[in-house]
Each structure stands twice: as C-alpha cells, then as structure tokens.
Amino acid sequence: MSTTFKAALYETHGNPAEVLRIVELPWPQPAPNEVVVKMTAAPINPADLNAIEGKYPVRPALPATPGMEGAGVVAEVGSAVRNLAIGTLVILPHGLGTWREACVVAAEKLVTVPMEIEPIQAAMLKVNPITAWRMLHDFVSLQRGDWVIQNAANSAAGRAAIQIAHECGYRTVNVVRRAELIEELRAEGGDVVLVDGENLRDEVAAATARAPIRLALNAVGGENALRVAKTLASEGTMVTYGAMSLQPLCIPNGMFIFKNLRFTGFWVNKWYEAATPQQRAETFGPLFEMAQRGLLHAKVEKTYPLAEAKVALAHASQNKRGGKIVFDL
User: Fold this and answer.
1) Angle at which helices 156-168 and 277-292 pack, to 10 degrees?
2) Rounded to whole angstroms, how far apart are CA atoms 317 and 329?
3) Confidence of residue 32 (pLDDT cuts 50, 70, 90)
4) Domains of the chain listed by start with CATH number
5) Closest CA to 159 of 2, 4, 42, 297
6) How do residues 204-263 score in pLDDT, each as one tens digit?
7) Which of 10, 56, 170, 241 is catalytic?
8) Which of 33, 147, 255, 282 is most solvent-facing, going by the fewest CB within 10 Å?
C-alpha cells in the first residue's frame, strides 16, 4: 500500500491552469465508520472550472481540491463498516473534491455501483444524468410519445436527456449550433435535430407536425432560449439549468399573460441537499440499469493523468469538443 497520494489543490481563485497545482499527501486512515476509496476516474465539468475561478455559487474553504463527481473502488474499510466490501465500485458524494488519487469518506455517503458499469462511466453518472432525469420527471407529467425541446443538445446533460427520453418513450427536439452534430445526435436517439436560427419556431412546427410541446430544457439563455420558449404550447414549462451564453433570459409579458408559460430552474446541488437516501436510490436505479444495458453512455474525448492537470484543463476549456475530458486516476 502506498504511503502517499496525489491531489489537485488550489489556494486562490483564478485561471484554473494557473492556480491549480498537484501535491503529495499522506495516505488517508479511515475512522470506524469510514472507508478509503482509491479513485479511478473524475471528469472535468464546467462547474468545476467555475468553482476554481470563484464564479460558482458554492465556494469551499481554501485551500480546496476541485471535482464535483467521480468514482473509485473501496480500498480499506473502518472497523464499524458492515455494508461495503473491499473492491466495491462507488460514486463519491457531493462536497468532496474528486480530483485526487484517494480519499476517506463516511460509508453511508457512498453510492454503490453495479460492477458491470465501467468506472469511467460511473464517474459521470452523478451530475448530468441525474440532472436530465429529474428535469424530465419533476416539472411536467410526460407520457410516451410526448415531445420535449432542448438547447445545448450536444452538452453532456443534453446527450443524457436524449438517451433517457428515448428510453422513456418521449420524443425530443434538439437544438444545436453546428450542422455536423445533426446525424450524430440522431444516432444517439434524438428524434429531431435542428440548427438554431430565426426560423426555429416554424422548423420545429414542421418537424413535429405541430404537436404540442409542454417541456423545454434551457442551458443557454439569451435569444436562443427565447426562440426555444416560443415553440412551447400554452401552459408549457421551461426549466433553466445553465447559462452558456452568459445572457439573461428575457421573456415577453405576453408569454405569461396569453400562454401562461412557466419558467423555473433546476440545480442538482439543491436536489441532492433535499433528496432522501430512498429518493437518491430511486433515481440512480434506472440510470444504473440503462448504463448496464449500454443505453446511457457519456462520450469521452480524452483522458489525462492527474500529473497533466494543466494540459487537461486547457483542453476542457475548449468550446468545440467531442466529449468529456476525464482524469484517469
């Protein structure tokens, strides 16, 4: 057993590639109710970069290790732990920086993952698939055959929404910025994929035979979100979970008065804070089943060792990527 492990650390907010450094720390020792997890993979999410920059709503005390999600294998168990065995694949809890080779965690806070799921995929199940699942189930009562529209369809959350909606029998209109993504997202299960533009409402109506759309998922904001909102049927709901354009959501009064549209938001951190262990298990259950069957799969562009963190961060900051950047730990 190693006596030390590597961890990413930042002591001040700023450009991630400049303020992040890799340090050696003593190998953790578990208390009776804790386990030591040897990390296997941790993705770089936009929220991770925002946290290092100091732009995220949650600011951990500094110095801090970034990383909002990740997976690992139980390497040691405390004397009082009975429900976790060495070798079990687990997902790490919120609030624990995952960009590290090892960590010590209370056993009750870990989510056990079926061993049939690849560790790198398990590492990406906690944020985007949970976000997509909850948005598709918590705001509008959808039936098989109903339509959903979303922007940012090429994002990790957007792709998860496509895959989950397809399995649930919902049909999706997926709005993107680049025409080369159309066939790729159709292959993942997207029913309609359209490039954003001034004629979006008419194109959506033509592609769906003017079927009512009661749910929109918005991760962009600005003019794009307004064009998507205009495709909603009366009494429809737009759920905002991101702001990629950095522009506010500006809604004409008539959308409230004459169509009675609802505009609300979703933040997965808040869901985790409020969810009971049973609610978490009930959400992870179908996602695990989909992942085991190969129906829920996050695209990875490249993996990096933690020692190459600066290169990995620069890669993750690029706009036109074909998938996630992940630390292979």
Assistant:
1) 80
2) 20
3) very high
4) 4-124+298-328 (3.90.180.10), 131-269 (3.40.50.720)
5) 297
6) 999 999 999 999 999 999 999 999 999 999 999 999 999 999 899 999 999 999 999 999
7) 56
8) 282
Cα–Cα distance, 52 to 67 (Å, whole number) = 10
Rounded Cα gap, residues 67 and 29, in angstroms: 21
- Beta strand segments in 227-304, E: 237-240, 262-265, 300-304
Tell me if residue 56 is catalytic.
Answer: yes
The SS3 call for residue 176 is: strand
- In DSSP terms, 325 is beta-bridged to 302
Are 23 and 6 contacting, i.e. CB atoms less than 8 angstroms apart?
Answer: yes
* CA quadruple 37, 38, 43, 45: dihedral sign: positive
Report the residue count for the chain.
329
**Residue 303 — left, alpha, or beta (φ > 0 → left; ψ -120 to 50 → alpha)?**
beta
